[in-house]
Amino acid sequence: MPIFNQPTSSLRSASAATRLTLKQILDRMTSVKPNFETRAGGWASLSEENVQLGSYGAKPPESAPEIRDAKPPLPELLIARFYFWDKVSEALSEIVGDPDSTYRLNAIDVALSKTSDTSLSILLSTRTPAFLNKKGGVLESLAKIIDPDAKRWRDVISMDSDHHRFSDADIFLWLASRSIAGGKLDPQITLTHISGISGTDSAARTAELRSGIDFDRSNFLTSVAEGDTLGPVDLNMTISRAHGNEHYTAVIFLDGGFKIKRSETYIPGILDGGELMLAANVSMAHDILRRIEHAYIADGPHWKTEREAVIETAIKDLRDRYELAHKALEDAKKRKPEAS
């Protein structure tokens, strides 16, 4: 069940061009309710009361999406859950035996906000293509709400050009560099640890580095020296707020999406799991990651010079290591085997 309130929440961002207000979208959403008889998906609130997600033959409780007021730096939000049913396999259907129990209740959460009079930000609680591209699914329904005449959801909703996307993949090398330089990204955000990073070489081969990333690891130096495309990155952050320090462990993607773990997320004053994960997802998408992007852009002139130095240092360190390794190999060849 890919909703916000999961042990691990996975978020994908998207956008749409529309002049509709959140209130107008809400009004249209409330008329599209989930229908168990026709198995048609529909919209409701994020309320967890009497919800039986994952159960066979289950029906969602009556509820409606809601608009939450802006609380700067977070914008006004339309929060909604899209309920739908998954058809179970024939083998499982035969075991269950009840025709009404051949479908399992599922859901995807969304958080909508206006980034301008003509642009809509869309946050989705899943990155799984099978869920996002599902016929009659969340994107198809949302596209019809925004534009009832749309033939395809892709004509309305963009997954590639979005307000939340990072400007370029070089931000991941910048983050690694900032990590070893104390981790201060802006006056409130501190990067405390990078636990993993992925790299893709010119042949589209991907390597994942885990258990900590620094410039002493030869495989990471190789990725830097050879100009591999880095990302996503696994990191730990502390955010200093007036109400106390927030802590996040996240996997961050170039498209502006991310994954966070409930057990490794802390926001002072929020104990309820559902409210915690909603607040964390919205804060990450609309505040924290945007500020990281702004810090990266602001550091542009300095980073251009530093980036060249980082790459040159990686090349030099690798050359020195391989020369030492080559010397050790040659010395080993020269040593005579001891007589037994």
Distance between the termini: 67 Å
Radius of gyration: 24 Å
Profile the largest sheet. Answer: 12 strands, antiparallel
Low-confidence stretches: none
Number of domains: 2
The count of DSSP E runs of length 2 or more, i.e. the number of strands, is 12
Q: Strand fraction band?
A: 25-35%
Quaternary state of this entry equals single chain
Order of helices and strands: EHEEEHEEHHEHEEHEEEHH
In helices, the fraction of residues equals 25-40%
**What is the residue-averaged pLDDT?**
91
User: How many helices does DSSP assign?
Assistant: 8
Report on this model:
Strand 3 (66-68) and strand 4 form a beta hairpin. The protein is built from eight helices and twelve strands. Helix 6 (218-225) crosses helix 8 (300-334). It has 340 residues and is an alpha+beta fold. It has helices spanning 22-29, 90-96, 129-132, 138-146, 171-180, 218-225, 273-298, 300-334; strands at 8-17, 42-44, 66-68, 77-87, 103-116, 119-124, 157-158, 189-200, 206-209, 229-241, 244-252, 258-261.
Give the SSE layout.
Blueprint: E1 8-17, H1 22-29, E2 42-44, E3 66-68, E4 77-87, H2 90-96, E5 103-116, E6 119-124, H3 129-132, H4 138-146, E7 157-158, H5 171-180, E8 189-200, E9 206-209, H6 218-225, E10 229-241, E11 244-252, E12 258-261, H7 273-298, H8 300-334
Antiparallel strand pairs: 1-6, 1-7, 1-12, 2-4, 3-4, 4-5, 5-6, 8-9, 8-10, 10-11, 11-12
Helix pairs in contact: 6-8
